[in-house]
């Protein structure tokens, strides 16, 4: 199936880190160290908007991980994922002021925040950006995070998603607590807000008791775009029910095709149009003007990697202390309490390549998800292949180093995708929902969808 047969173009998100990013990448000569500088993030936003990206997506973490060897040392020493991470909503507010079209996605946990706070914060960003906000919903999974929120241990996996389901019900009730036309601002009457069009939610449940209403009007998008990355069976079911966009990583196109097919089928079982669920696998392309340039970049980046820097991050993601396993033996078969998707990806890579644990760590610190390396034409070929095979609706593009790798992708790969008519040459709407081809939900749409799904069971 060609792109023209689908009558669609692919979507592009940018996986941005409000910190040093990959352990070797921050050491790369072209990497800039403005992680605490507001202009650093504004420049990234401007680059992405110049490249007509749908959105910038900020992952987050609520602790400096200590899962590897029960110590923070490896995270801090190697600049791994939790060594430094700014609060994403504040960074996105700065990026909103530097752009007019770029979508803005913040990660917030349903395990440690409250629905009113999240509903208010994301709605505020949606208003201030003119309808460009998105929320990446995570349930969190680390005891290190729990202990930063006055808890000894984390909520068990199944309970985490029970809480998340109720959390989403409450946030939608809060966003719907204002009618779209409730804010009148009539000075002569006077009538600031029509009281008949603002309704308390009066929610009482297992996890939350929330009166409402929200003290922010209904978001411009109706509901902000919802993103989820759950890879477990319960996580996939949660994503099929609630998400507009799924972020996932795959080692191969074959696993990406299987995942996409499964998630579209799950969405249909929830009474949704499968086309309204956009799947953007993460890729970390390495692009250059020639094969020789790409090979040299790969060599330099690889030389900057210490295996432990990848293993400490993988330990965090899996919630397994990998320091207890020999570095010269394969990645063991494990029951993973953390992110099963990352384990499946590395398990596939380890099995196919016969890699010892040290090389798994090196790969994880500097991995090229899907093997997107080469010239602009070669990378565009592979993106087109995945897209036309039904593996995805687009890609979440990560950078080995910031901001230069984003600039190279925009300068080299985006024009090639545009030449093939695979990607937009300009924005055609003002909101993130417009970019993604999603309709604006009316008040109560989330509830009607749930009711229809229950009726079909």
TrEMBL record:
Residues 20-391 form the Luciferase-like domain. FMN binds at residues 60, 107, 161, 232. CDD domains: Nitrilotriacetate_monoxgenase. It holds the Pfam family Bac_luciferase. The keyword Oxidoreductase applies. It comes from the Bacteria. One of its GO terms (molecular function) is monooxygenase activity. Keywords: Flavoprotein, FMN, Monooxygenase, Oxidoreductase. Belongs to the NtaA/SnaA/DszA monooxygenase family. PANTHER family: ALKANESULFONATE MONOOXYGENASE-RELATED (PTHR30011), C2H2 FINGER DOMAIN TRANSCRIPTION FACTOR (EUROFUNG)-RELATED (PTHR30011:SF16). This is LLM class flavin-dependent oxidoreductase. It comes from Mesorhizobium zhangyense.
